[in-house]
From TrEMBL:
The keyword Kinase does not apply. This is Membrin. It is found in: Golgi apparatus membrane. Involved in transport of proteins from the cis/medial-Golgi to the trans-Golgi network. Belongs to the GOSR2 family. GO terms for cellular component: endoplasmic reticulum membrane; ER to Golgi transport vesicle membrane; Golgi membrane; late endosome membrane; SNARE complex. It comes from the Eukaryota. Residues 81-108 form a coiled coil. It holds the Pfam family V-SNARE_C.
Length: 229
């Protein structure tokens, strides 16, 4: 019997050759898959060209089976018809088995790809959280450094204020000594009491100026200390 693509025997021989080729190609795909798994490759190795060729060959075998199924039914002798029926059914079963194996391969590869994508997303989120924690630590370190700088500035300002007050105290003693010497001289030359009162008044004014200066210095130090807290 002969169909549009050749005789039943010719179609059968073509289908058997395609079965052998497809089985070998599928085994190559599975070797690639398991070799990548044993080497701890995260997403596995896929060969789109090879898997597409296997899928195409299986579809061609199934098409040949459809042609052969039509031809064996046209055989007159029952014994020959039953023989070709079993042969065609065997080819169809092998094609279905290959298709099932290929579908499982696609499913495993899709699952590995999805797992790799999820791991990448988790790793990205983990890296983002680590960066956030590091940023917090950096901000805390900067705040502590700023507090140390403020404390050092306050200590320096306090030391400056103490030095200023000590300077004022030294000037006060020198003014008192100079005043006593001047009074002795004036008393010696007989300066009037009026001049002496003027000198004493000037001395009191100088003292008030000194105290006001010390007061404002303390106010400035306290304000600077509060600002740096």
């Amino acid at each position: 019997m002969e169909g549009g693509g050749g005789t039943l025997s010719e179609l059968y021989q073509r289908s058997k050759k395609l079965l052998i080729k497809t089985r070998d190609s599928l085994e190559r795909l599975e070797r690639l898959e398991f070799s990548s798994a044993s080497s701890s490759t995260s997403a596995g190795v896929d060969s789109p060209e090879l898997s597409f060729a296997v899928k195409r060959d299986i579809a061609q075998i199934q098409s040949l089976c459809a042609d052969m199924d039509r031809l064996w039914r046209l055989i007159g002798a029952k014994s020959q018809r039953d023989l070709w029926k079993r042969k065609v059914e065997q080819v169809a079963e092998e094609a279905d088995s290959l298709k099932e194996s290929l579908d499982k391969y696609f499913l495993r590869n899709q699952r590995r790809t999805q797992e790799a994508r999820e791991r990448a997303e988790l790793l990205g989120r983990a890296n983002g959280e680590s960066s956030h924690v590091l940023r917090i630590f950096d901000e805390e370190a900067q705040a502590m450094q700023s507090a140390r700088n403020s404390s050092r500035m306050l200590e320096e300002s306090y030391a400056t204020g103490v030095a200023i007050l000590a300077q004022y105290a030294g000037q006060r003693e020198r003014l008192k000594s100079a005043q006593r010497k001047a009074l002795d001289i004036l008393n010696t030359v007989g300066v009037s009491n009026f001049v002496l009162r003027l000198i004493e008044r000037r001395h009191r004014v100088d003292q008030w100026i000194k105290y006001v200066g010390m007061f404002f210095t303390i106010i400035i130090l306290i304000a600077f200390w509060r600002w740096t807290r």
